[in-house]
Amino acid sequence: MEVSAASTRVLSSMLEQRTGQQLAMSRQWRIETVLQSLVRARGLGSLDRLVHAVAAGGDPALADAVIDALLNNETSFYRDRNSFELLLGPAMARLEQARTRERRISIWSAGCSTGQEAYSIAMWFAERKARWVGWTIDILATDVSRTAVDQARSGLYSQFEVQRGLPVTQMIRWFEESPGANWRILPELRRAVRFEVHSLMNPAPSPARFDVILCRNVLLYFSDQVRRIVFARLAEAAAPDAVLMLGAGETVIGQTPAFVSDPDCRGLYIRRPDALPAYRAAS
Amino acid sequence: MKSCLVVDDSKVIRKVARHILETLNFSVQEAGDGREALTRCEEHMPDVVLLDWNMPVMGGMEFLRTLRQRSFESQPKVVFCTTENDAAHIRAAIDAGADEYVMKPFDRETLESKLQIVGVA
């Protein structure tokens, strides 16, 4: 089942318009694979007919399904373990000290996919209740894909998903078996994370003064121009000393003046308190 | 180079695990049951053991308990790798001294992440 160049252009344009993401060459081979089941389910016979049906605009649900299928929802618990150890070790200790008066830490997992990273953080706090007594830990996780957000909110993960990156002791502690070789995260942790559908192209969600922002393996799908806008959105949403955690292969260097390398935690970034007015115009 | 002993009565599983582990830069030894695995450990203690549950001659749990009771100079990390995928089996394995648990079927990323968790990858 092949897709024509014209259909690829339609899909590419639709994806960029709705999510800001580009259908890079490296992802084009996936089109046929990820859309085949939709073609079959709808009895459309070919990918070009599917694209035609979407382009006709009479079936918003089909368009949503196509966009969802094209997005890469790859994630895992504690993805890039070393980065999480930095974030939850020295970076969090520094924030704890800086927020002693407010006793509140707001965390935003921006582009959370199916929620594993947000739940990883929720688990970390839940296992240190005594340390954080009297604190408000607000964890917001957002993604442009409604399907991904729905799964994240349900807390239901396949056997493959649940054991990728997650120590078995935490799996046993925080998950219960569910029919069909699935595992569901316990209600206590589901309540600890708010999930919302949100596009990084739009202004940041409330409270828009986050102490920690995770935006991992998302920016690489944006054009330079969109990436600048998204960095500006993230900076606007960040507290003056906020920590930014990107994907392992991503950097702020040469991308934005709003964040700089964290001198205490190599691989993490902090907001430049003085940078905001200069780049606000970029959004 | 870290070493891994793959203990499984299925040649196919051993072959798949060996392939993944070698791409992760492990030297790999194999054993078809727990008793053979103990012999391998006496000859050369690996850094990590990838262990099946049900095997002839000596199963994974008996191997693990015996291994943990013996006074070897060093103890390897033990990662169960089995189709016994319910919470009761997992708890029993941890209680017996397993460090990690992989539910079959598994893929490279899962195995790699578990080996990272126990500190050998």
Q: What would you say this structure looks like, in words?
A:
Chain B: InterPro entries: CheY-like_superfamily (IPR011006), Sig_transdc_resp-reg_receiver (IPR001789), ST_Response_Regulator (IPR052048). Chain B: This is Two-component system response regulator. Chain B: It holds the Pfam family Response_reg. Chain B: Keywords: Phosphoprotein. The complex is a heterodimer of chains A (283) and B (121). With 283 residues, chain A is an alpha/beta fold. Chain A folds into 2 domains: 66 residues, no CATH class; 172 residues, 3-Layer(aba) Sandwich (Rossmann fold). Helix content of chain A is 45%, strand content 18%. Chain A is built from 13 helices and 10 strands. A 7-stranded mixed sheet of chain A has the order 6-2-1-7-8-10-9. In chain A, helix 3 runs antiparallel to helix 5. The radius of gyration of chain A is 20 Å and the shape is globular. The C terminus of chain A is likely disordered. By secondary structure, chain B is an alpha/beta fold. Chain B has a single domain, classed as 3-Layer(aba) Sandwich (Rossmann fold), CATH 3.40.50. Chain B is 43% helix and 21% strand. In chain B, strands 2-1-3-4-5 form a 5-stranded parallel sheet, with helices on both faces. In chain B, helix 1 links the parallel strand 1 and strand 2. In chain B, helix 2 packs parallel to helix 3. The longest helix of chain B has 13 residues.
